[in-house]
Amino acid sequence: IEKYGQQGLFIDLNTVLDKMPNLRKAYEKYPYAKKVTTTDDGKVYSMPYIYQFVSGNNVMMVRKDMLNKYGLEMPETTEDWYNVAKTLKEKEGITPISGYGAQGKGMNSVISFISAWGVWPDSASLYIAYEGKLAPYDGKVHYGPIEPRFKEGIEWLRQLYSEGLIDPEVITNDAQAFQAKVLQDKVAIWRGQINADMAVLNTTAEKEGRSMEDFNIREAPIMKGPYGDQWHLWPGSSVLTNGMVITAANKYPVETAIWADYWYGDVGQTYVYGVENVTYYKDENGNLKWTDWVINNPNQTMNEARGKVTFGRSIWPTIFQPWDLTKATVAEYIEEDRIKYRDPNKFVEPIVPGLSFSTEENSLISQKLTDIQTYVDEALVNFIIGNKPMSEWDNYVQTVKSMGIDEIIEIYQKSYERWLKR
Questions:
Q1: CA 6, 374, 419 angle in degrees (round to 5)?
Q2: What's the CA dihedral at 114, 115, 120, 121 to 10 degrees?
Q3: What is the DSSP letter of 198?
């Protein structure tokens, strides 16, 4: 968005902000939204999409019924996970840990476990080593896959793979192949999305006539590493910067701004969840509730009902619905586990949203980081499956550095320092 704004394709919304009282009010209530949508030179090219609540739906999952079957406690530490995986392999005869990903990147879902070492395990982006939270705790920008602790995490995964605890097909699994394995009782441990994995698979198994005692996927605690790090690095941002833009070709920017501002107002933002007394209502205490037409309709799903009268959950210039409505869309056990395991105090955004880069910096990052990611992804897989000895780790790190990662880190660091001064 900033790149196209710099090129003059989008207007600076500061020029019409005086016509947007609801957005200004939202900025006062959610100052972070103003910070992340404002560039270093003070321009605002995009209206924010603001969440009133961040739930962090990317979590560790486990077949709770298998734990119960063998009297195993819910795993939390990396040692716990190893012991559970080893027991399930021995007792169930399965390779318990798996995952999936697009374009042969399923191993990345397993590599995500390395967050327990206090580093960001994504090969495609950098992270801020917040003091007291992420290693090496210096408040500066780092690239996870070359950090010393990342190596320790890879060595741990390499051990698990060598002992047959990680599914060899994780590299090529797509979502469909992965879900088939879960339903066939061939997988017991992975990181995934609450709705896309847990809810879908539990519901599918139930429709197939399986009881909760026989098939029960549940959320597990945030994985805790050998140094005591226990951070949820996939909380989801409280602000998305791509809510809406106004192009320079728009002949009526002021009118468009007034129209967009409506959705930030007290009435306008309710249209995210529908129409009062059709999809929701207010109870005697003023709390919002879904109507039976939405949650107890035998002829349509909840999303189908909402979709008939509202744009629902699409990206829009708005403040997203309160958590009371969101939690009513999930099963009781999902909300129960969220309260039990997802401590918001352990939520960490690895990199702040809305960093500002010049056109030249954006071009360099795009070019070099893509090449680095391709190399890193391949190398890490080979380290884990044993095709590359750990004695080559230093050479791997030097190769990543020779490809320009230090230059990218420096660009991010300067951008982050500018971001802090906004």
A1: 35
A2: 30
A3: I
Q: Which amino acid is at 350?
A: P
Would you give the DSSP letter of residue 196?
I
Residues 200 and 193: their CA atoms lie apart, in Å, by 10
Report the pLDDT averaged over residues 39-57: 93
Q: What is the pLDDT of residues 109-160, one digit of tens each?
A: 999 999 999 999 999 999 999 999 999 999 999 999 999 999 999 999 999 9
Q: Hey, what amino acid is at 10?
A: F
**Residue in this structure with the two tokens 């100052």, named with its chain if needed:** 31
**What distances in angstroms separate CA 50 from CA 279, 313, 317, one per listed residue?**
21, 12, 8
Flag whether the pTM goes above 0.90: yes
In this structure, what token pair is assigned to residue 175? 């979502």
In terms of C-beta density within 10 A (0-12 exposed, 13-18 middle, 19 or more buried), how is residue 17 classed? middle
Peptide bond into 145 cis (omega under 30): no
With helix as H, strand as E and coil as C, how does 45-57 read?
A: CCEEEECCCCCCC
DSSP 375-401: HHHHHHHHHHHTSS-GGGHHHHHHHHH
Conformational region of residue 258, where left means phi above 0, alpha means psi within -120 to 50, and beta covers everything else:
alpha
Nearest to residue 30, comparing CAs of 293, 400, 318, 373?
Answer: 318
Tracing tokens 């009282």 back to the chain, one arrives at 21
Backbone angles phi, psi at 73, to 5 degrees: -80, 160
Q: What is the mean pLDDT of residues 219-234?
A: 98
Distance CA 293, CA 398 (A): 60
Distance between CA atoms of 18 and 20, rounded to whole angstroms?
A: 5
Lookup: tokens for 205: 């198994």
Q: What is the pLDDT of residues 246-304, one digit of tens each?
A: 999 999 999 999 999 999 999 999 988 889 999 999 999 988 899 999 989 998 888 88
**∠ CA 241-242-247, rounded to 5°:** 120
Determine the Cα–Cα distance for residues 416 and 141; give it in Å rounded to an integer: 8
Judge contact between 369 and 408, C-beta under 8 A. Answer: yes
Residues sharing a CB contact under 8 Å with residue 74, sequence separation 6 or more, in sequence order: 62, 64, 67, 218, 220, 221
